[in-house]
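Quick review question:
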């Protein structure tokens, strides 16, 4: 694990009108932060170092108000990213996007080599800047990002295409080459357009996978009433987050995960109470309750009557 640098020598940094900050790492590589506007920051990474810089020194605005869209693209190596307090690894060829309120994100390198770019935009104020920023706002909106999924998950991850890789290379060359800012912004817009296409392709693949996961959950819940499944079990099986499992199921079947599990168990219990003379204790075990008292409480909460009262009414 690379070592953290608590402070930086002043001769390691160069600034140009407070818009461009360049950091040469002690044993190889550079990090360049470019602030074309108040509501936007682009960071170019070419790291070959065993030391971690303090990225706040690169112009992060800690504690700012507003909603941010962060796009982190890994060209080579890998890095850690933290979303909602959870740390994950972004490998080469992948993109991570997330929304956050306030600028409280974290970032760490996981290897001594990492190249890529991070683009952070304060989306609520983009339209207040100029025509180029308005174009970026349009690009963001055209991507069709599943915003609610990004808010509630560990970030929106997907692979980028060959076209995006080529645009990324041009953007990195421009950033490290200190070309005119308008060129960097134009290539950022182009990169956004390409990422929009990548997202749509990713969503097609995810839609098919979403159906597979939701149908598997549905089969388990409707064929095995006695097992109390958890979203965490399916999340581990399919290598997604608990939140993603719940969203997939609700989007496909219209019910929340726990809500539907309770529904099928209670309906099956009611059927047994109505059509058989099995004891209430046995029915409780059939639908996954080890204690009859817990089953009775759950049944009454669902049907507003106890199991014994339900059976009596069914007989009449």
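Suggested answer, residue by residue:
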């Amino acid at each position: 694990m690379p070592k953290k640098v608590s402070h930086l020598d002043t001769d390691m940094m160069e600034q140009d009108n407070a818009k461009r900050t360049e950091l040469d790492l002690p044993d190889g590589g550079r990090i360049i932060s470019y602030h074309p506007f108040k509501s936007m920051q682009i960071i170019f990474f070419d790291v070959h170092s065993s030391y971690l810089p303090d990225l706040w020194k690169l112009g992060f605005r800690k504690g700012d108000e507003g909603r941010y869209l962060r796009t982190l693209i890994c060209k080579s190596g890998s890095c850690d990213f933290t979303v909602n307090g959870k740390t994950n690894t972004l490998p080469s060829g992948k993109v991570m996007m997330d929304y956050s309120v306030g600028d409280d994100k974290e970032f760490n390198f996981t290897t001594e080599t990492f190249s890529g770019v991070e683009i952070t935009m304060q989306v609520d104020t983009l339209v207040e800047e100029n025509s180029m920023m308005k174009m970026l706002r349009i690009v963001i909106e055209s991507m069709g990002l599943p915003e609610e999924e990004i808010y509630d998950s560990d970030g929106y991850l997907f692979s980028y295409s060959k076209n995006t890789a080529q645009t990324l290379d041009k953007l990195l060359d421009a950033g490290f080459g200190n070309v005119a800012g308008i060129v960097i912004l134009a290539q950022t817009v182009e990169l956004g357009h390409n990422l929009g296409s990548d997202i749509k392709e990713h969503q097609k693949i995810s839609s098919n996978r979403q159906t597979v996961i939701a149908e598997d959950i549905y089969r388990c819940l409707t064929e095995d009433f006695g097992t109390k499944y958890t979203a965490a079990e399916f999340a581990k099986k399919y290598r997604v987050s608990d939140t993603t499992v719940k969203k997939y199921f609700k989007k496909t079947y219209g019910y929340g995960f726990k809500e539907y599990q309770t529904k099928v168990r209670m309906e099956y219990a009611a059927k047994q109470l109505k059509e058989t003379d099995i004891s209430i204790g046995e029915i409780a075990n059939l639908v996954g309750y080890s204690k009859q008292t817990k089953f009775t409480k759950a049944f009454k909460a669902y049907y507003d009557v106890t199991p014994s009262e339900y059976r009596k009414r069914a007989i009449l």
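Why it works: Confidence is low (pLDDT under 50) at residues 1-17. Residues 259-315 form a domain with the Arc Repressor Mutant, subunit A fold (CATH 1.10.10.60).
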